[in-house]
Design brief:
Cytochrome Bc1 Complex, Chain D, domain 2, mainly alpha, binds heme C, 22 helices, two-stranded parallel ribbon
Length: 475
């Protein structure tokens, strides 16, 4: 078996790409295919793992090129990619015990007469930003949807979509007779969208892209039982609902369960924008405030936000003054009884690092202005002192005091670092909805430029600001 076959075993590769790979048998090219192979167009449907252990899945061509430990590494790469992608897309880490069994979100989806729950139709689900993976649906069903023969106002259709594993980021659990018995969530919920190739909200998966349409607060507030969240925050359900409503589309508050600060001093919501989870390889600290590395944050999210069963520990959050909720509930030292997160961290990390930032579509920026903008970015505008190309964040420590970038310290103070992390800028064009900076305070790039011009006293002309915007859009 050659390396192409080795990869085909794990990924269904589109014919045109197969040809390219067929022409180039080096495993390097294969890695490029899974690493940088046109995330918007490639159709890589997960297949069941076959072929057993890496040792038994060796290929003769790979053997010719990779022998001994090199071959072990090459096979490991393929396996980590597959496992990590599966985890990112489908693993709930046991979070159905919280979202379904405890909060009853599945009842809200299916509907329940006795509980006066009308159910969630596909139309409603799409309207709160949930996405449907067209590749998970049988062709004949897609044809029927297109012809208007599927009732998109019926919650039963949503349940059918869940059964097909087609609702991005939401995993249904079913009784033997087919009734929905619980739901859990996956990483893809907030960090994936679809390309709308079938219709709005229905298309091929775009792993790692920020879903700025997703209204997390609205979805959570559908759950019939919000008492556990109220109890954690020592408040009442009405207040919890108000907080969830205050987030709006594209936002979530990943620190609320640590410090209980739902509202900023200016009265606005403490939620931050959902960031992309692509283009992160080479970047030191992660999150807007640099909590830690990718696997650090993955453990944080999987256990303390998604409510999966796992282990997460950070003594920095034991501080009752700064993180009263974490200190009281003990979530700074979460110990799930049945650890379903830690065994997944390695492959999940690997997969995330292999998601490239997407290239801007042709014609979406002006190349001559981009070139002028680049000179300004690296020169007069001093942007590249912090956004160091080609990572567009600092190698080494990428943290800054709030005053350095001229903003308030509310969100920085919610992190152990008390700082803001220089955002890696590649793929910026794909997450413009919701604005810029951690809370979307600058609705447009023009406003970001005005801010820097003022704060860093750059004396940029209007033409220079426009060129810088074209540069940012072309990254
Ligand atoms: C409910 C929505 C939601 C879910 C589900 C979610 N995240 Fe996030 N993620 C966020 C938000 C919001 C942030 C920003 C948090 C901050 O900066 O305080 C974030 C930040 C990140 C970052 C940092 C990105 C950067 O620029 O450094 C990574 C990596 C990440 N998430 C990966 C994951 C993984 C892996 C999972 C699944 C285990 C996951 N997320 C599940 C909302 C979510
Ligand atoms: C002192 C370091 C520093 C300098 C200089 C700097 N930035 Fe930033 N930049 C940051 C930090 C830190 C953030 C994160 C702010 C936040 O999320 O609140 C950021 C965020 C951004 C964002 C928002 C990204 C997003 O996803 O929301 C853009 C765009 C940006 N910078 C562009 C620029 C440009 C253009 C320049 C030059 C005019 C520049 N930066 C100069 C540190 C810097």
């Amino acid at each position: 078996m050659n390396p192409v076959a080795l990869v085909q075993e794990n990924f269904v590769i589109p014919k045109n790409i197969r040809k390219i790979v067929g022409a180039s048998l080096a495993l390097g090219a294969v890695l490029c295919l899974v690493d940088c192979g046109g995330s918007r167009s490639s159709r890589q449907t997960a297949q069941p793992m076959s072929g057993g252990s890496p040792a038994t899945r060796t290929s003769s061509t790979a053997q010719a090129r990779f022998t001994g430990f090199d071959e072990v590494i090459a096979n490991h790469t393929v396996r980590m990619m597959k496992e990590g992608r599966d985890t990112f897309r489908h693993d709930t880490f046991g979070s159905e015990a919280f979202w379904g069994d405890t909060l009853g979100l599945h009842e809200a989806i299916e509907g329940s007469e006795s509980k006066h729950l009308g159910g969630v139709s596909p139309k409603t689900a799409l309207s709160v930003g949930l996405k449907v993976d067209a590749d998970a649906l049988p062709g004949e069903l897609l044809v029927r949807i297109k012809s208007g023969l599927v009732n998109m106002d019926d919650p039963a259709t949503t349940v059918a979509l869940l059964k097909a594993r087609a609702v991005v980021g939401v995993a249904g659990f079913f009784e033997e007779k087919g009734r929905l018995k619980s739901v859990g969530i996956t990483c893809a919920l907030c960090h994936s969208t679809v390309d709308d190739s079938f219709s709005a909200g229905i298309g091929r998966r775009l792993d790692g892209w920020a879903n700025r349409d997703l209204n997390v607060g609205k979805i959570v507030s559908l759950a019939p039982n919000l008492d556990p969240i109220a109890a954690m925050l020592q408040t009442d359900v009405d207040k919890v609902k108000k907080v969830l409503e205050s987030w709006g589309p594209g936002k979530y508050d990943a620190e609320l369960d640590k410090d209980g600060k739902a509202v900023r001093p200016d009265g606005k919501s403490g939620a931050t924008l959902l960031p992309p989870a692509f283009g992160l390889a080479g970047v030191n600290l992660h999150t807007y405030t640099g909590f830690g590395s990718v696997p650090y944050w993955n453990a944080y999210v999987a256990t303390t936000q998604m409510h999966g069963k796992g282990v997460y520990r950070d003594e920095r959050l034991k501080d009752a003054g700064r993180f009263p909720v974490a200190a009281r509930t003990g979530s700074w030292n979460t110990r799930g009884d049945d650890d379903r997160v830690t065994p997944k961290l390695a492959a999940l990390h690997f997969y995330q690092l292999s998601i490239p930032a997407p290239q801007p579509p042709a014609g979406s920026f002006e190349p001559a202005a981009f070139a002028r903008g680049q000179i300004l970015f690296e020169g007069k505008a001093t942007c590249s002192t912090c956004h160091v190309p080609p990572l567009y964040t600092e190698p080494g420590s990428n943290l800054h005091a709030p005053a350095e970038i001229g903003i308030d310290d509310f969100q920085a103070e919610r992190s152990p670092t008390k700082a803001y992390r220089t955002t890696p800028l590649r793929g910026l064009w794909s997450h413009q909805r919701g604005g810029f900076y951690h809370d979307g305070r600058f609705p447009t790039l023009a406003e970001v430029l005005e801010h820097y011009d003022r704060h860093l006293k750059l004396n940029l002309t209007d033409a220079e600001k426009k060129d810088l915007i074209q540069f940012l859009l072309g990254l």
